[in-house]
């Protein structure tokens, strides 16, 4: 009997040292704006825990093994993808990250804001998505004083995006920009936002396709393109082109007006006005011009303009 009691006591001692959750309480807090998952030494236990307190069990005697609480936000999150000349958060960045538009390769700055919603963990598909986020994300160690002790990790849902699909999304955004004929065509597409041809609508469809192809647990709400700004050289080229078009249109109207007069009076007056303007321009610079005028070929009754 004494030997049996010693064996029983030894078994209890070994079980206690092994760190079973039933022998010691290790409570940790799950804030109201978060949900929790238990990461065991062999993986997640497959459950989603609501806000409150949870016992994660004590640490085993072998290699300090033990469960960890992984916290994840309840609310949605936003990602901003920037395509600018220099990274404002990196003083050493000298690369040009702007999008390239069309065959003329016009540089264009651009922000694309992506809004994501968290899966509904109360439904089977949402629970599976949350658990996949725990596998795909990159949790960081939390401060022990915030959640009642150590062995707590916080998973930023945005890290799933960065780890899984960011590079593909940025590459496809560049492809969309390159598909337009020019920056002008991009602005025309922005004016059509809210339709399948809209610039923002193409962005949203593209991101949704990438998430689906990668079986991502992220739920896209919308994508918004903003701060679209072409390079100053592109703006100057557009302005010069518009000015040249207006000048050509004005010259055609003047030519049509002059040719409509069979007497030649309009042509003669136009020549005199042009010489008057040339003389005034030279006078502004301190020079002088002398024009020799004759009445050869001048129709009768044409008044000579005077300064």
TrEMBL record:
Residues 1-24 form the signal peptide. Keywords: Signal. This is Band 7 domain-containing protein.
